[in-house]
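Put briefly, the fold is written as integer tokens. The lines below illustrate.
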Amino acid sequence: MVVDYLFAKDQIFAELNLEGPELALYREVLGLMTDPIPTPDLVIYLEARPEVLMRRLRKRNREFERRIREAYLEGLIEAYRRFFHEYSEAPVLVVNCSGIDFVEQGSDLEDLIREIRSVKKGTQHYIPLGSQ
């Protein structure tokens, strides 16, 4: 099974976007969840420089993403880095994808798939040759 969401990282967005009573309510609801959430076999964290992310957002041209500012992305990137630096529930593959494009360049995806298959445990970093 492949999913593009990791429930454990949900708190990153809550802490960046909620405050006061909203954040307290989020934490209360989170505390009420008692069903165990399956642990993934592997987490793949795709990271890129803020200017690259901004360019990709503009290219997608989604209405709700037009209000996102580079400063917000910088804070989000830092929050993700802190989160995955301490994440230990599953192996993590950190992929620097600033200089590669899985959509436009099929060989970039093939290289990543090879790297995914080699991950065993802990945190590994993958910096493709095209990344800057």
Observations:
- Residues 39-126 form one domain.
- Helices lie at 10-17, 20-32, 50-60, 70-86, 106-118.
- The chain has a mean pLDDT of 87.
- The longest strand covers residues 43-47.
